[in-house]
Amino acid sequence: MSTFPNSPRVVKGGLVLVDPETAKVRRVISLQYNPDSLKRSLQSKTLGDGAERSEAFRLTGPAVETITLEAELDAIDQLEHPEQNKNTVESGIAPQLAVLEALINPTAADLFAGKALASSGTLEIAPMESSLALFVWGAQRIVPVRVTEFSISEEAFDPELNPIRAKVNLGLRVLSIDDLGFDHKGGGLFMAYLQSREKLAGKAATFGFDALGIGGLP
Fold first, then answer.
1. Are 15 and 54 in contact (CB under 8 A)?
2. What is the dihedral of CA 118, 121, 124, 130, to 10 degrees?
3. Which end of the chain is more exposed for a tag (fewer CB within 10 A), N or C?
């Protein structure tokens, strides 16, 4: 980041982990560097090819949106000031990678608790519920997501073989009201996101038929 006093403050993208029941924030994960690109894919939800002709244009729910990005992590800047970054000197960027890995792993405590229930004869053990993950890409894009793909490429190491540079690929699926319901905190955030996209669409320029080189529809 530039040290010039008039340089703009760079807003970082990241993830916020929220308790799905109380909506209390458990952790904020800020990306060290914003990715140069972000890929989004939207798949419409319709009645399908077998629908009657009169139903051909009916949407059954919000589109299924997926987001993919590549984030970079490195410890170079921190290692230049070792007295201020003891954890980085000792472990490199391994702690940051461990935080991201926790997005798709249950905790050891949850696993031990499940084992204890099974050992006590409990016949039905509910699957462990993870934190609600919110993808934050600026104030206008805050959406509940589930991590569907996660890979790490560790590219440089310190003398103790701690990673000091890595690339992380994240695949996220946006969770809509079809997944969470209207009353869920995540469902409310999805609706706010959808409404913000509709407002943006309202700001787009409108054109007449002449822009398409035609006088009207046949």
1. no
2. -30
3. C
